Amino acid sequence: MEVKKFSNGFEYVEVKNSVASAKIALQGGHIFHYAHNKKEPILWLSDESVFEVGTAIRGGIPICWPSFGMNNSDLPQHGFARVSMWNLVCVNELNSNTTEVILNLKETQESLKLWDYKFDLELKITISDTLTLEMTTTNLDEKSFKLTQAFHSYFKISDITNISVNGLDSKLYFDALSSYNIRQNGDITFSAELDRVYQNVESPVVLKDTNAEVKLTSQGSSSVVVWNPWIEKCSRMSGMSNEAYKEFVCIETANAFEDFRTLGTRESHILKVTIS
Ligand code: TA6
Description:
A hairpin with a 5-residue loop joins β14 and β15 (181-183). The radius of gyration is 18 Å and the shape is globular. The protein contains two helices and 22 strands. By secondary structure, it is mainly β. The strands form four sheets. Strands 5, 11, 12, 14, 15, 16, 19 and 20 form an eight-stranded antiparallel sheet that branches. Strands 6-7-8-9-22-18-17-13 form an eight-stranded antiparallel sheet, with no helix packed on it. A four-stranded antiparallel sheet has the order 1-2-3-4, with no helix packed on it. The chain has helices spanning 109-114, 230-236, and strands at 2-5, 11-16, 20-25, 30-36, 63-64, 87-95, 98-106, 119-127, 131-139, 145-147, 149-151, 154-156, 164-166, 172-175, 181-183, 194-198, 205-208, 213-219, 223-228, 248-255, 261-263, 268-275. The structure holds 6-O-phosphono-beta-D-tagatofuranose. Residues 56, 69, 77-78, 152, 176, 195, 225, 227, 250, 252 line the site of 6-O-phosphono-beta-D-tagatofuranose.
């Protein structure tokens, strides 16, 4: 493991073990590279992403916390964790195939102005032939708070027209484009902008591409967001080229919308996803 810096001082942890490699920015606790050795990356990273303090990296797995989307209008879109500086607690080489990176975020004077709660947020990222993110939120305040959150995972694909997302058949979803609640029929394929929050999801979700499959198995979550901006929205998105919509799909393990969690004093909630 090495702690490295880009030329502008932006710090990240680089992990290489016998099966995989990863890069994790201290800003946002943000894994922006994960690949099996000698294979293509599993996570997508925009060619136009900037690694600048205060700007969320475009790709990898942004941490949406303590709110998803604009669930809390007092907070920036997807909360403040992804543009906050996290502390690197430790890196444990559990064995030659497995590396554990633990990061932590606590309230600051700045965060208290945005969201007046004391908290402890711990993210454990386990890099092996699978990738696991386990994030524990603990309420250290005297008052309860409502939490919505997501691992906003960007997956690299061969082409958006080659893929399907499976495992959500018959699940009800909120369609962010129409604001209707609709029931999923069959597998999800893509031919236009798609932005959906699925509820009551218990089983794994599978991304099927021409020559690859990625399975997401979650704990502490019953909502999944599936998103692709397609042509028009992609052209308006920061940090991505006009053609980027062809290269990725987001499948986000969440506590979003009705799947929010309320934490009382000293209560914790764990959101976990294993990508295999
Ligand atoms: O998770 C889907 C979504 O909420 C989309 O609506 C789109 O806004 C995307 O997140 C990216 O959001 P960002 O704030 O990272 O530009």
